[in-house]
């Protein structure tokens, strides 16, 4: 008989600490006295979306302005030296 095929009984818990009972008890309490006092932190203007909505003021306007400038530069500001070789005509 191989060593790995032996079915062993679970080891007795020497400390008496039950991990499954601990995990079950960490959930929300049915009669939490502070639940009402803490509820305002996650509603209305304090929701996650509303807290981070104003994190980068002006980013939208700056992005549009930068894109408009890049488009203007590409269309109207042509480089006059484009296509010339720098070795022949420059002194």
TrEMBL record:
<keyword id="KW-0812">Transmembrane</keyword>
<dbReference type="GO" id="GO:0032981">
    <property type="term" value="P:mitochondrial respiratory chain complex I assembly"/>
</dbReference>
<keyword id="KW-0999">Mitochondrion inner membrane</keyword>
<dbReference type="GO" id="GO:0005743">
    <property type="term" value="C:mitochondrial inner membrane"/>
</dbReference>
<keyword id="KW-0249">Electron transport</keyword>
<protein>
    <recommendedName>
        <fullName>NADH-ubiquinone oxidoreductase B12 subunit</fullName>
    </recommendedName>
</protein>
<keyword id="KW-0813">Transport</keyword>
<dbReference type="InterPro" id="IPR012576">
    <property type="entry name" value="NDUFB3"/>
</dbReference>
<dbReference type="GO" id="GO:0022900">
    <property type="term" value="P:electron transport chain"/>
</dbReference>
<keyword id="KW-0472">Membrane</keyword>
<keyword id="KW-0679">Respiratory chain</keyword>
<comment type="function">
    <text>Accessory subunit of the mitochondrial membrane respiratory chain NADH dehydrogenase (Complex I), that is believed not to be involved in catalysis. Complex I functions in the transfer of electrons from NADH to the respiratory chain. The immediate electron acceptor for the enzyme is believed to be ubiquinone.</text>
</comment>
<keyword id="KW-0496">Mitochondrion</keyword>
<dbReference type="Pfam" id="PF08122">
    <property type="entry name" value="NDUF_B12"/>
</dbReference>
<comment type="similarity">
    <text>Belongs to the complex I NDUFB3 subunit family.</text>
</comment>
<keyword id="KW-1133">Transmembrane helix</keyword>
């Amino acid at each position: 008989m191989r060593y790995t095929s032996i079915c062993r009984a679970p080891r007795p818990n020497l400390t008496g600490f039950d991990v499954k009972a601990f995990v079950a008890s960490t959930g929300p309490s049915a009669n939490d006295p502070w639940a009402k006092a803490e509820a305002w932190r996650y509603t209305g203007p304090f929701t996650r979306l509303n807290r981070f909505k104003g994190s980068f003021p002006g980013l939208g306007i700056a992005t549009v302005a930068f894109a408009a400038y890049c488009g203007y530069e590409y269309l109207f500001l042509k480089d006059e030296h484009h296509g010339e070789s720098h070795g022949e005509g420059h002194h």
